[in-house]
Amino acid sequence: MDNPVTNRYALSVEALWLENMVHSNVKENLKRGEKVANQALWLESSIVVAKTVIGVLSGSTVLISDAIHSGSDIMSIFTSWLGLKISQKKPNERFSYGFYKAESLGTLLISAIILFAFYDMFRRGIELFGSYSEIRIPVFALAVSFLDALTLFFFGNYEIKVGKATNTQSLVAMGKENRTHIFSSGIVFIGILASYFKYPNVEAIFTLVISFLILKIGWEALRDSIFTLMDISPDTEISERVVSILEAIPGIEEYSDLRLRESGPSIFGEVRIGIRKSRDAKSIYRITNLIEEKVKKSVSQIEYFTVKVEPFESVYKHIAVPVERKGDLDVEISKKFARASYFLFVNIKNDSIVGYYFIDNPYKGDTSKVGLSASKLIAKQEVDDLIVSEIGEISFYTLRDNFIDLYKFNGDTANEAVRNYIKGNLSEITYPDEREQK
Ligand SMILES: [Zn+2]
Fold first, then answer.
1. What local confidence, expressed as pLDDT, does residue 434 receive?
2. For residue 244, is pLDDT > 90?
3. DSSP reduced 3-state for 244
4. 301 contacts: CB under 8 Å, gap ≥ 6
5. pLDDT at residue 226, rounded to an integer
6. Are 80 and 74 in contact (CB under 8 A)?
7. Exposed site from 13, 273, 292, 293, fewest CB < 10 Å?
8. CA 423, CA 363: separation in Å to the nearest integer?
9. How many angstroms does the Cα of residue 265 sit away from the middle of ligand 1?
10. Helix or strand or coil: residue 135?
11. Is the sign of the CA dihedral 422, 427, 430, 433 positive or negative?
Protein backbone atom coordinates (compact mmCIF):
# COMPACT_ATOMS: atom_id res chain seq x y z
CA MET A 1 0.00 0.00 0.00
CA ASP A 2 1.21 3.47 -0.85
CA ASN A 3 1.68 5.90 1.92
CA PRO A 4 -0.49 8.94 1.08
CA VAL A 5 1.78 11.26 3.07
CA THR A 6 4.89 10.19 1.18
CA ASN A 7 3.09 10.59 -2.13
CA ARG A 8 2.05 14.09 -1.34
CA TYR A 9 5.63 15.03 -0.50
CA ALA A 10 6.93 13.36 -3.63
CA LEU A 11 4.54 15.40 -5.75
CA SER A 12 5.57 18.65 -4.13
CA VAL A 13 9.24 17.78 -4.63
CA GLU A 14 8.75 16.88 -8.27
CA ALA A 15 6.97 20.14 -8.96
CA LEU A 16 9.66 22.11 -7.26
CA TRP A 17 12.48 23.76 -9.13
CA LEU A 18 14.04 26.11 -6.70
CA GLU A 19 16.00 28.90 -8.26
CA ASN A 20 17.70 31.26 -5.94
CA MET A 21 19.80 34.25 -6.75
CA VAL A 22 21.87 35.95 -4.12
CA HIS A 23 24.08 38.97 -4.57
CA SER A 24 27.79 38.77 -3.92
CA ASN A 25 30.47 41.40 -3.57
CA VAL A 26 31.02 41.77 -7.34
CA LYS A 27 29.50 45.28 -7.15
CA GLU A 28 32.09 46.37 -4.58
CA ASN A 29 34.87 44.92 -6.74
CA LEU A 30 33.71 46.92 -9.76
CA LYS A 31 33.57 50.09 -7.68
CA ARG A 32 37.09 49.47 -6.42
CA GLY A 33 38.31 48.80 -9.97
CA GLU A 34 36.70 51.99 -11.19
CA LYS A 35 38.52 53.96 -8.49
CA VAL A 36 41.89 52.58 -9.55
CA ALA A 37 41.13 53.33 -13.24
CA ASN A 38 40.29 56.87 -12.18
CA GLN A 39 43.63 57.25 -10.37
CA ALA A 40 45.43 55.81 -13.42
CA LEU A 41 43.73 58.39 -15.65
CA TRP A 42 45.16 61.27 -13.60
CA LEU A 43 48.60 59.74 -13.27
CA GLU A 44 48.93 58.89 -16.97
CA SER A 45 47.66 62.34 -18.03
CA SER A 46 50.37 64.10 -16.03
CA ILE A 47 52.97 61.76 -17.51
CA VAL A 48 51.83 62.53 -21.07
CA VAL A 49 52.03 66.29 -20.43
CA ALA A 50 55.52 66.01 -18.92
CA LYS A 51 56.82 63.78 -21.73
CA THR A 52 55.39 65.97 -24.49
CA VAL A 53 56.81 69.21 -23.04
CA ILE A 54 60.28 67.76 -22.34
CA GLY A 55 60.21 65.80 -25.62
CA VAL A 56 59.61 68.94 -27.68
CA LEU A 57 62.16 71.00 -25.74
CA SER A 58 64.89 68.32 -25.95
CA GLY A 59 64.12 67.35 -29.55
CA SER A 60 64.15 63.65 -28.61
CA THR A 61 62.20 61.54 -31.10
CA VAL A 62 62.22 58.61 -28.70
CA LEU A 63 60.64 60.68 -25.94
CA ILE A 64 57.98 62.17 -28.23
CA SER A 65 56.97 58.76 -29.57
CA ASP A 66 56.96 57.51 -25.99
CA ALA A 67 54.54 60.34 -25.18
CA ILE A 68 52.31 59.16 -28.05
CA HIS A 69 52.51 55.67 -26.61
CA SER A 70 51.36 57.01 -23.22
CA GLY A 71 48.54 58.78 -25.05
CA SER A 72 47.30 55.39 -26.26
CA ASP A 73 47.62 54.15 -22.66
CA ILE A 74 45.16 56.88 -21.67
CA MET A 75 42.72 55.48 -24.21
CA SER A 76 43.13 52.07 -22.55
CA ILE A 77 42.46 53.48 -19.10
CA PHE A 78 39.44 55.38 -20.32
CA THR A 79 38.04 52.22 -21.95
CA SER A 80 38.62 50.25 -18.76
CA TRP A 81 37.01 52.97 -16.65
CA LEU A 82 34.00 53.09 -18.98
CA GLY A 83 33.68 49.31 -18.99
CA LEU A 84 33.80 49.18 -15.20
CA LYS A 85 31.27 52.00 -14.99
CA ILE A 86 28.81 50.28 -17.35
CA SER A 87 29.32 46.93 -15.62
CA GLN A 88 27.92 48.41 -12.43
CA LYS A 89 24.59 49.24 -14.02
CA LYS A 90 21.73 47.36 -12.43
CA PRO A 91 20.10 44.62 -14.49
CA ASN A 92 16.93 45.75 -16.22
CA GLU A 93 14.24 44.06 -18.25
CA ARG A 94 16.25 43.97 -21.46
CA PHE A 95 19.55 43.05 -19.78
CA SER A 96 18.29 40.85 -16.99
CA TYR A 97 21.72 39.32 -16.26
CA GLY A 98 23.32 42.74 -15.79
CA PHE A 99 26.07 44.50 -17.73
CA TYR A 100 29.14 42.60 -16.57
CA LYS A 101 30.27 41.80 -20.07
CA ALA A 102 30.95 45.52 -20.63
CA GLU A 103 34.16 44.95 -18.68
CA SER A 104 35.21 42.17 -21.09
CA LEU A 105 34.28 44.32 -24.08
CA GLY A 106 36.44 47.07 -22.58
CA THR A 107 39.36 44.64 -22.30
CA LEU A 108 38.82 43.61 -25.91
CA LEU A 109 39.12 47.25 -27.01
CA ILE A 110 42.19 47.73 -24.83
CA SER A 111 43.82 44.71 -26.43
CA ALA A 112 43.30 46.35 -29.82
CA ILE A 113 44.94 49.53 -28.56
CA ILE A 114 47.86 47.57 -27.08
CA LEU A 115 48.28 45.64 -30.35
CA PHE A 116 48.37 48.93 -32.21
CA ALA A 117 51.05 50.15 -29.80
CA PHE A 118 53.02 46.99 -30.70
CA TYR A 119 52.70 47.74 -34.40
CA ASP A 120 53.78 51.34 -33.88
CA MET A 121 56.81 50.37 -31.82
CA PHE A 122 57.82 47.58 -34.16
CA ARG A 123 57.72 50.00 -37.09
CA ARG A 124 59.84 52.56 -35.20
CA GLY A 125 62.32 49.86 -34.26
CA ILE A 126 62.80 48.93 -37.91
CA GLU A 127 63.18 52.59 -38.90
CA LEU A 128 65.78 53.23 -36.19
CA PHE A 129 68.26 50.78 -37.70
CA GLY A 130 71.42 52.54 -38.83
CA SER A 131 70.56 55.79 -37.02
CA TYR A 132 70.26 57.49 -33.61
CA SER A 133 68.40 60.48 -32.17
CA GLU A 134 70.00 63.86 -31.50
CA ILE A 135 69.22 65.18 -28.02
CA ARG A 136 69.24 68.57 -26.25
CA ILE A 137 68.80 68.98 -22.47
CA PRO A 138 69.50 65.23 -21.93
CA VAL A 139 69.24 65.51 -18.10
CA PHE A 140 65.55 66.49 -18.24
CA ALA A 141 64.79 63.78 -20.79
CA LEU A 142 66.49 61.25 -18.53
CA ALA A 143 64.63 62.52 -15.47
CA VAL A 144 61.18 62.35 -17.05
CA SER A 145 61.63 58.84 -18.42
CA PHE A 146 63.10 57.71 -15.11
CA LEU A 147 60.07 59.07 -13.22
CA ASP A 148 57.73 57.44 -15.77
CA ALA A 149 59.38 54.07 -15.33
CA LEU A 150 59.44 54.26 -11.55
CA THR A 151 55.85 55.45 -10.94
CA LEU A 152 54.29 53.20 -13.57
CA PHE A 153 56.17 50.15 -12.34
CA PHE A 154 54.72 50.54 -8.84
CA PHE A 155 51.33 51.67 -10.08
CA GLY A 156 51.28 48.72 -12.51
CA ASN A 157 51.91 46.35 -9.61
CA TYR A 158 49.07 48.00 -7.71
CA GLU A 159 46.73 47.65 -10.73
CA ILE A 160 47.58 43.96 -11.10
CA LYS A 161 47.01 43.38 -7.37
CA VAL A 162 43.61 45.10 -7.36
CA GLY A 163 42.73 43.60 -10.77
CA LYS A 164 43.36 40.08 -9.53
CA ALA A 165 41.60 40.66 -6.21
CA THR A 166 38.54 42.10 -7.95
CA ASN A 167 38.69 39.80 -10.99
CA THR A 168 38.82 42.73 -13.43
CA GLN A 169 40.78 41.72 -16.51
CA SER A 170 41.19 45.24 -17.87
CA LEU A 171 43.12 46.36 -14.78
CA VAL A 172 45.44 43.35 -14.95
CA ALA A 173 46.10 44.01 -18.66
CA MET A 174 46.87 47.68 -18.02
CA GLY A 175 49.04 46.88 -15.02
CA LYS A 176 51.14 44.45 -17.07
CA GLU A 177 51.50 47.02 -19.84
CA ASN A 178 52.47 49.72 -17.35
CA ARG A 179 55.25 47.58 -15.94
CA THR A 180 56.88 47.37 -19.39
CA HIS A 181 57.49 51.13 -19.15
CA ILE A 182 60.54 50.26 -17.11
CA PHE A 183 61.92 48.87 -20.39
CA SER A 184 60.54 51.51 -22.75
CA SER A 185 62.00 54.22 -20.53
CA GLY A 186 65.22 52.25 -20.60
CA ILE A 187 65.19 52.77 -24.36
CA VAL A 188 65.07 56.49 -23.87
CA PHE A 189 68.10 56.18 -21.60
CA ILE A 190 69.95 54.04 -24.07
CA GLY A 191 68.82 56.29 -26.91
CA ILE A 192 70.35 59.30 -25.19
CA LEU A 193 73.57 57.45 -24.41
CA ALA A 194 73.74 56.00 -27.94
CA SER A 195 73.30 59.51 -29.36
CA TYR A 196 76.00 60.79 -27.02
CA PHE A 197 78.43 58.11 -28.18
CA LYS A 198 77.03 58.29 -31.74
CA TYR A 199 76.43 54.56 -31.64
CA PRO A 200 73.71 53.21 -34.00
CA ASN A 201 71.42 50.09 -33.86
CA VAL A 202 71.30 49.73 -30.04
CA GLU A 203 68.13 51.82 -29.84
CA ALA A 204 66.57 49.84 -32.72
CA ILE A 205 67.21 46.43 -31.17
CA PHE A 206 65.83 47.46 -27.78
CA THR A 207 62.74 48.98 -29.39
CA LEU A 208 62.03 45.69 -31.20
CA VAL A 209 62.47 43.65 -28.02
CA ILE A 210 59.98 45.86 -26.18
CA SER A 211 57.53 45.76 -29.06
CA PHE A 212 57.39 41.96 -28.70
CA LEU A 213 56.77 42.26 -24.94
CA ILE A 214 53.84 44.52 -25.75
CA LEU A 215 52.60 42.07 -28.41
CA LYS A 216 52.48 39.32 -25.77
CA ILE A 217 50.42 41.50 -23.41
CA GLY A 218 48.06 42.55 -26.19
CA TRP A 219 47.58 38.95 -27.29
CA GLU A 220 46.82 37.79 -23.73
CA ALA A 221 44.28 40.56 -23.20
CA LEU A 222 42.65 39.75 -26.56
CA ARG A 223 42.48 36.02 -25.77
CA ASP A 224 41.17 36.45 -22.18
CA SER A 225 38.48 38.95 -23.17
CA ILE A 226 37.24 36.81 -26.07
CA PHE A 227 37.21 33.68 -23.92
CA THR A 228 35.21 35.48 -21.22
CA LEU A 229 32.77 36.78 -23.83
CA MET A 230 32.46 33.15 -25.00
CA ASP A 231 31.40 32.09 -21.45
CA ILE A 232 34.62 30.27 -20.58
CA SER A 233 34.65 28.22 -17.37
CA PRO A 234 36.77 29.75 -14.60
CA ASP A 235 39.89 27.99 -13.26
CA THR A 236 39.39 24.35 -12.30
CA GLU A 237 40.43 25.39 -8.79
CA ILE A 238 37.13 27.29 -8.47
CA SER A 239 34.97 24.38 -9.62
CA GLU A 240 36.90 22.10 -7.27
CA ARG A 241 35.97 24.42 -4.40
CA VAL A 242 32.29 24.19 -5.37
CA VAL A 243 32.50 20.39 -5.67
CA SER A 244 34.00 20.06 -2.19
CA ILE A 245 31.08 22.10 -0.81
CA LEU A 246 28.51 19.93 -2.61
CA GLU A 247 30.18 16.82 -1.24
CA ALA A 248 30.23 18.09 2.33
CA ILE A 249 26.58 19.11 2.62
CA PRO A 250 24.42 16.33 4.07
CA GLY A 251 21.14 15.72 2.33
CA ILE A 252 22.54 15.95 -1.21
CA GLU A 253 22.28 12.40 -2.56
CA GLU A 254 23.89 13.19 -5.91
CA TYR A 255 24.83 16.15 -8.07
CA SER A 256 25.42 16.62 -11.77
CA ASP A 257 25.72 19.23 -14.51
CA LEU A 258 27.82 21.62 -12.45
CA ARG A 259 28.45 24.53 -14.77
CA LEU A 260 30.28 27.78 -14.15
CA ARG A 261 30.85 30.62 -16.58
CA GLU A 262 32.67 33.92 -16.42
CA SER A 263 30.78 37.10 -17.14
CA GLY A 264 33.13 40.08 -16.90
CA PRO A 265 34.43 40.08 -13.34
CA SER A 266 31.66 37.84 -12.03
CA ILE A 267 30.89 34.13 -12.25
CA PHE A 268 27.49 32.56 -12.89
CA GLY A 269 26.88 28.98 -11.91
CA GLU A 270 24.33 26.21 -11.78
CA VAL A 271 24.04 22.66 -10.56
CA ARG A 272 21.47 19.89 -10.50
CA ILE A 273 21.10 18.04 -7.22
CA GLY A 274 19.20 14.93 -6.20
CA ILE A 275 17.32 15.07 -2.91
CA ARG A 276 15.42 12.21 -1.37
CA LYS A 277 11.85 12.08 -2.57
CA SER A 278 10.43 12.05 0.95
CA ARG A 279 11.85 15.46 1.89
CA ASP A 280 9.42 18.32 2.26
CA ALA A 281 9.74 21.72 0.61
CA LYS A 282 11.07 23.29 3.80
CA SER A 283 14.03 20.96 4.09
CA ILE A 284 14.77 21.30 0.36
CA TYR A 285 14.76 25.04 0.84
CA ARG A 286 17.24 24.68 3.70
CA ILE A 287 19.57 22.52 1.59
CA THR A 288 19.54 24.83 -1.46
CA ASN A 289 20.06 27.87 0.75
CA LEU A 290 22.98 26.20 2.46
CA ILE A 291 24.58 25.43 -0.93
CA GLU A 292 24.29 29.01 -2.10
CA GLU A 293 25.51 30.44 1.17
CA LYS A 294 28.59 28.21 1.27
CA VAL A 295 29.41 28.51 -2.45
CA LYS A 296 29.28 32.30 -2.36
CA LYS A 297 31.26 32.47 0.84
CA SER A 298 33.97 30.29 -0.66
CA VAL A 299 34.09 31.96 -4.10
CA SER A 300 33.34 35.67 -3.78
CA GLN A 301 33.12 36.28 -7.56
CA ILE A 302 30.10 34.02 -7.86
CA GLU A 303 27.20 36.36 -8.47
CA TYR A 304 24.43 33.87 -9.26
CA PHE A 305 24.29 30.23 -8.32
CA THR A 306 21.21 28.35 -9.44
CA VAL A 307 20.31 25.05 -7.83
CA LYS A 308 17.91 22.75 -9.63
CA VAL A 309 16.33 20.09 -7.46
CA GLU A 310 15.35 16.66 -8.65
CA PRO A 311 13.71 13.89 -6.64
CA PHE A 312 16.11 11.12 -5.79
CA GLU A 313 15.07 7.58 -5.04
CA SER A 314 17.73 5.28 -3.73
CA VAL A 315 17.36 1.53 -3.43
CA TYR A 316 19.70 1.80 -0.44
CA LYS A 317 18.79 3.11 3.02
CA HIS A 318 20.95 3.40 6.08
CA ILE A 319 19.00 3.69 9.30
CA ALA A 320 19.81 3.80 13.03
CA VAL A 321 17.99 2.59 16.16
CA PRO A 322 19.04 3.20 19.79
CA VAL A 323 19.18 -0.18 21.59
CA GLU A 324 19.84 -1.63 25.07
CA ARG A 325 22.26 -4.43 24.15
CA LYS A 326 24.34 -5.88 21.30
CA GLY A 327 23.45 -9.07 19.47
CA ASP A 328 20.95 -9.77 16.72
CA LEU A 329 18.04 -7.71 15.37
CA ASP A 330 15.73 -8.86 18.16
CA VAL A 331 17.49 -6.65 20.71
CA GLU A 332 15.38 -4.41 22.92
CA ILE A 333 14.91 -0.81 21.83
CA SER A 334 16.16 1.93 24.16
CA LYS A 335 13.45 4.40 25.15
CA LYS A 336 16.05 7.10 25.57
CA PHE A 337 17.94 8.11 22.44
CA ALA A 338 21.11 9.78 23.70
CA ARG A 339 21.52 7.55 26.77
CA ALA A 340 21.09 4.26 24.88
CA SER A 341 23.84 1.67 25.52
CA TYR A 342 24.36 0.97 21.82
CA PHE A 343 23.27 2.15 18.41
CA LEU A 344 22.15 -0.37 15.82
CA PHE A 345 22.76 0.52 12.17
CA VAL A 346 20.79 -1.33 9.51
CA ASN A 347 21.47 -1.40 5.76
CA ILE A 348 18.37 -1.77 3.64
CA LYS A 349 18.30 -2.48 -0.08
CA ASN A 350 15.05 -2.60 -2.04
CA ASP A 351 13.03 -2.85 1.19
CA SER A 352 14.93 -5.81 2.60
CA ILE A 353 17.57 -5.89 5.32
CA VAL A 354 20.98 -6.66 3.85
CA GLY A 355 23.20 -6.08 6.89
CA TYR A 356 23.58 -4.49 10.30
CA TYR A 357 26.17 -3.54 12.92
CA PHE A 358 26.34 -2.10 16.44
CA ILE A 359 28.34 0.80 17.81
CA ASP A 360 28.88 1.48 21.56
CA ASN A 361 27.49 4.76 22.77
CA PRO A 362 30.47 6.28 24.59
CA TYR A 363 28.42 9.32 25.67
CA LYS A 364 25.65 7.57 27.63
CA GLY A 365 27.22 8.38 31.01
CA ASP A 366 28.25 11.98 30.17
CA THR A 367 26.97 14.78 32.38
CA SER A 368 26.44 17.34 29.63
CA LYS A 369 25.86 17.64 25.86
CA VAL A 370 24.79 13.99 25.63
CA GLY A 371 22.17 14.71 22.94
CA LEU A 372 24.62 16.71 20.84
CA SER A 373 27.40 14.10 21.03
CA ALA A 374 25.09 11.15 20.29
CA SER A 375 23.50 12.99 17.34
CA LYS A 376 26.93 13.74 15.89
CA LEU A 377 27.85 10.05 16.20
CA ILE A 378 24.70 9.15 14.24
CA ALA A 379 25.44 11.81 11.60
CA LYS A 380 29.00 10.56 11.18
CA GLN A 381 27.61 7.16 10.12
CA GLU A 382 25.79 8.97 7.26
CA VAL A 383 22.42 7.77 8.41
CA ASP A 384 19.30 8.58 6.35
CA ASP A 385 16.72 7.97 9.05
CA LEU A 386 16.63 7.36 12.80
CA ILE A 387 13.92 5.41 14.62
CA VAL A 388 13.26 6.54 18.21
CA SER A 389 10.47 6.51 20.76
CA GLU A 390 11.22 9.99 21.98
CA ILE A 391 13.70 12.74 21.18
CA GLY A 392 15.06 15.76 23.07
CA GLU A 393 15.25 19.23 21.67
CA ILE A 394 19.02 19.46 21.14
CA SER A 395 19.16 16.01 19.53
CA PHE A 396 16.20 16.82 17.31
CA TYR A 397 17.74 20.00 15.92
CA THR A 398 21.25 18.55 15.57
CA LEU A 399 19.89 15.59 13.61
CA ARG A 400 17.68 17.85 11.52
CA ASP A 401 20.69 20.08 10.67
CA ASN A 402 22.35 16.95 9.32
CA PHE A 403 19.25 16.17 7.28
CA ILE A 404 18.44 12.98 9.18
CA ASP A 405 14.72 12.25 9.31
CA LEU A 406 13.21 10.85 12.51
CA TYR A 407 10.51 8.19 12.79
CA LYS A 408 8.54 7.29 15.90
CA PHE A 409 8.24 3.72 17.20
CA ASN A 410 6.90 2.67 20.59
CA GLY A 411 7.27 -1.13 20.36
CA ASP A 412 9.85 -3.40 21.97
CA THR A 413 12.44 -4.81 19.55
CA ALA A 414 14.62 -3.32 16.86
CA ASN A 415 13.40 -5.98 14.44
CA GLU A 416 9.77 -4.82 14.81
CA ALA A 417 10.86 -1.20 14.42
CA VAL A 418 12.79 -1.83 11.19
CA ARG A 419 10.04 -4.03 9.67
CA ASN A 420 7.44 -1.37 10.39
CA TYR A 421 9.73 1.30 9.01
CA ILE A 422 10.15 -0.63 5.75
CA LYS A 423 6.39 -1.09 5.46
CA GLY A 424 5.93 2.64 5.87
CA ASN A 425 3.92 2.29 9.08
CA LEU A 426 5.98 4.72 11.16
CA SER A 427 5.09 8.37 11.34
CA GLU A 428 7.70 11.09 10.99
CA ILE A 429 8.61 13.16 14.02
CA THR A 430 8.34 16.82 13.08
CA TYR A 431 9.04 18.43 16.46
CA PRO A 432 10.94 17.36 19.60
CA ASP A 433 9.35 15.94 22.73
CA GLU A 434 8.80 18.62 25.30
CA ARG A 435 10.84 16.88 27.96
CA GLU A 436 14.53 17.40 27.23
CA GLN A 437 16.54 14.27 27.80
CA LYS A 438 18.81 14.67 30.74
ZN1 LIG B 1 52.25 52.05 -22.03
1. 63
2. yes
3. helix
4. 24, 26, 29, 167, 234, 238, 265, 266, 267
5. 94
6. no
7. 293
8. 32
9. 23
10. coil
11. negative
Top-confidence residue, 187 or 49:
49
Q: How much is the mean pLDDT over the chain?
A: 85
Q: Ligand 1 center to residue 138 CA distance, Å?
A: 22
Q: Residue 203: what pLDDT?
A: 72
User: What's the CA-to-centroid distance between 200 and ligand 1, angstroms?
Assistant: 25
Q: Does any domain span residue 435?
A: no
User: Using an 8 Å Cβ cutoff, are 362 and 301 in contact?
Assistant: no
Please tell me the predicted confidence (pLDDT) of residue 201: 78
- Residue 348 pairs in a beta bridge with 317, 353
Three-class secondary structure of residue 179 per DSSP: helix
pLDDT of residue 133: 61
Residue 68 lies in a domain: yes
pLDDT range class, residue 436, cuts 50, 70, 90: very low
Q: Which of 282, 312, 342 is the last residue of a domain?
A: 312
The domain spanning residue 413 has which CATH number?
Answer: 3.30.420.130
Strand, helix or coil at 277? coil
What's the confidence (pLDDT) of residue 15?
34
Cα 69 to ligand 1 centre (Å) = 6
Q: How far apart are CA 84 and CA 102, in angstroms?
A: 7
Range of the domain at 399: 316-428
Nearest-CA neighbor of 121 among 62, 73, 171, 177? 62
72 and 196 both lie in a single domain: yes
Ligand 1 centre from 362 Cα, in Å?
69
**208, 229, 250 — which closes off a domain?**
229
- 8-63, pLDDT tens digit by residue? 333 333 333 333 333 457 788 888 889 999 999 999 999 999 988 988 888 776 77
If asked whether residues 295 and 335 sit together in one domain, one would say: no
Mean pLDDT of 315-331: 92
Q: Is 396 part of any domain?
A: yes
Residue 185 CA to ligand 1 centre (angstroms): 10
Whether residues 308 and 320 fall in one domain:
no
Beta-carbon contacts of residue 47 (< 8 Å; ≥ 6 apart):
70, 147, 148, 151, 152
Query: Is residue 303 domain-resident?
Result: yes
Å from CA of 176 to ligand 1 middle? 9
Q: Does one domain contain both 207 and 280?
A: no
Q: What is the CATH number of the domain that holds 304?
A: 3.30.70.1350
